[in-house]
Write the structure tokens for this entry.
Amino acid sequence: MPIFAPVGRMFLSFLALVGRVTVFAGRTIGHMIAPPIYFRLIFKQMREIGYFSLPVVAMTTLFAGMVLALQSYSGFSRFSAESAVATVVVISMTRELGPVLAGLMVAGRVGAAIAAEIGTMRVTEQIDALVTLSTNPFKYLVVPRVIAGLITLPILVLIGDIIGVLGGYLVGVNKLGFNEASYIRSTFQYLEQLDVVSGLVKAAVFGFIITLMGCYHGYNSRGGAQGVGQATTNAVVSSSILILISNYVVTELFFTR
Amino acid sequence: MSTPAKISLRNVHKAFGAKKVLQGVDLDVAAGSSVAIIGGSGTGKSVTLKCILGLLTPDQGSIVIDGLDMTTAIRSDHEAMLAKTGMLFQGAALFDSLSVWENVAFGLIEGKGMKPKLARDLAIARLADVGLDADVANLSPASLSGGMQKRVGLARAIATEPEILFFDEPTTGIDPIMGDVINDLIVKCTRELGASAVTITHDMASARKIADRVAMLYQGKIIWDGPVSEIDQTDNPYLQQFVAGDIEGPLDLDLKHL
């Protein structure tokens, strides 16, 4: 049947892609644990990935927390459970919305920038130049970005969690008429350490995925400006999909007994 | 007694899928000599250079540098080889994220572990060697003209005082006068360092000025190899056509794929 051949080819090329990404990830991890480590570049990337992503993550989580308070109040009022709003906001933000929204926003901002920068370096022979100057491109370009992603995403998400809860508090107190003290008490009453920790673990996983996919697609880009553009698109799309898949996997690992 | 070969290629093959680019390249570069590999677009000049540098792995054959076969060498030997080479890329390949002096000093700081302050002084001295003022040291590479970028690329290539220099199309993309300036700088720097040099070019004026010997690559093989002084006396019809720049002749130009 003629339909099977293209499907088979697509499946085989997908498996080959998975293999290439896995080898790339393995090489990255191998170089992460062997010297030299470029600490100066790690700090520079932490600033690029973390500090400069703060405004976009803060805005996203602030409004997510605000809308979550509004929506849960409107829904829970149907069965007189309005008092659960603060608990729902804090658990939703720490477990899911904080890491996922921050991950997706950073994937769009940072994943694209990494793929574009490394892709341009590839097509202008700057990566070859690194090799001729006795510098390993993996150690110089990939490892600092991946380490920075691993470290900064959890910090970004922690800040995003706090801002999201603040958004819920502002709406709860100023618009929905909750008492300030009781809203804060409800926020912490049912919050468990695992809720926050699972979100931070997710953030670290997302940080790894975003930076790895940005580096992979940039490093393997071909064919000039069009190739760099394609690499940028692929980096954002693949990291966004992997964030959503890995979000389910990590959630299942933490919360399924 | 002849000078021992610094670089020796034997029966080097490289294919990309069904496309056979190199089909048995043999080439010797004597220590301290300058060889230009000439040939039309798509004949495999850049692939040859990338195979020598280890940026591509040949499918077959040997590439011996200082007596060590790089196709079977371990990583540390390969790194040691790269530490004694310098390369000027066709588009200069300067790092956008670094200033001019950081580009020139890159090999000194990252490759040789030199302190940045000392490396900066050396980088400015190298910039002076290629005719650039200290004023450009703090500029971004993007703010320089094409000719200045090439000169910065040359300064970066010679900064670590390498034993072997590679030049990829050094005069492409710049005007003839600046091309001649680059050629003169290449000759000067190579002589001062006493380095062996391999240049790939299709610019015959550049080849004549830079090289002691010329090797012509055609259909994946070296079809002529001799002193630069014999180019005009050759009876090789392929080289005659290439030097004259004629459309008519034995060279299969395959214009649809160039």
Q: What stands out?
A: DSSP finds eight helices and ten strands in chain B. Chain B has a mean pLDDT of 88. Chain B has two domains: 1-84+164-169+195-258, 85-161.
